[in-house]
Amino acid sequence: MPERKRKWKILLVLMIILPTLLFVVYFFSLAPMPWTGVDEAVVQKIAKEHGREAVAPLINPGSGDLLLFVFLVAGAVGGFVAGYCWRDLVKKKE
What we know:
Layout lengths: L1 H28 L8 H12 L16 H19 L1 H5 L4
């Protein structure tokens, strides 16, 4: 019987996650124009107001907030790994 409950739980989770992911992809595909990154939207605007021009970055991560997304993914992966290995990380060595 526990195996049957487990299958139902997995099915229920998939029934929630898959439509949510499809909705997110559909919603963001309808965006009328590409999103601008924080640099273009805020920093360059304020720099122009104060009479300064933006200079090219030393390390160009591409357009938009790609660098922020990379840090987000790295943090999520690190969090999952730390959570998975939590007992090994905090266990006192005897």
